[in-house]
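Agenda item 2: S-adenosyl-L-homocysteine complex prediction
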Amino acid sequence: MITTQREIAAPARPAAADERVDLLGLSREQLAEVLAPLVDRPFRVEQIYRALYERAAGDLASLTELSKDLRLRLAERFRVGLPAVASRHLSEDGTCKVLFRLRDGATIEAVDIPDRGRRTFCISSQAGCALACTFCVTGYWGAGRNLTAGEIVGQVLAIRADRGLPMEGLNIVLMGMGEPLLNLDNVKAALDIFMEWISPHRITLSTVGILPGLEEMAGWERRPNLAVSLHAADDELRGRIMPINRTWPLADLMAALRRYPLEKGRKLTFEYILIRDVNDSDRDADRLSRLLSGLRAKVNLIPVNPDPVLGERMVPPSDERIAAFKDRLRQRGWIATVRRRRGDDVSAACGQLRAFGREARGFRGSAK
Ligand code: SAH
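Presented output:
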């Protein structure tokens, strides 16, 4: 049974009427700076920092560790911009897709995926995506805008607040809507906050491989796991299903990944969507194996999730073909796993996140 719970997103006040500064997404130093006129003692700043991120406090009035007077004065000038939950869709398997409505009306999705003792939040980095990969529903609906650091952090905080979950024990994957490396400053600010509570080993950034972004990440002090959406092992095919490949072809991408610093024990993850009769042959597996040679890598095979907007040919291979592709990679020495489908009864599966209420860009015309 699928339970769908719809709520009216709190309209709050119209954005223009609320000019208070949003505290969400600020680093400790930035917080100290904006709060300086009202809060000058570092331990108070620390209390507020922890209340925001560790406790996921949704408003300043709930910071009872501060005096009432200070809370009132803070609330006059500052706000906590947790995104409003517009709806939740709970899947049979426990996966919960949350639709958020942001202050300007943009909508984004995040997914809460419980898995035995573990729990993974899949969050968005942009409201929409300009990359137009042919298998991706977000791409079908077209470009949106970059999320602010507060909107990225806010997705995690809002789900946590909703479900009463601590930051500890979470895994976070930036595999929702958007391309994180095209919004790298805000993504980094959000990651820096997450990484205060969550080990970078439990955080994964997934990208199509935007080269300048990869170069920048290579210079970071602390890096999350890196997952690269490959999906094809030759330029002709990859260019057809992922237009970004025409800007940064495979040779350049692979060269950048060979330079990318990997700490001991870490591996790159390559995501490879399997699409029937498109990229699922033994030859494709052999090509993939050759492309990755010499890299410390594992392969995550994702049977494509069909969706009406993607057209009829975007379907996964048979189970036998999927197993054969995986086995072929394993025979060649690779760690290869097939991603389990989660939440597909509520369209929360990979690549099925969309911005509701938007006009499709229409370039795939009849597919709809
Ligand atoms: N832009 C980033 C992150 C968002 S997509 C990236 O491309 O990596 C997260 C993952 O979902 C990517 O591997 C993407 O290729 C995959 N995905 C997109 N559409 C899909 C679909 N219909 N079925 C299965 N996986 C899909």
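Discussion summary: The pocket of S-adenosyl-L-homocysteine is lined by residues 135-136, 175, 179, 206-208, 229, 271, 273, 302, 304-305, 350-351 (CB under 6 Å).
Owner for follow-up: CH.
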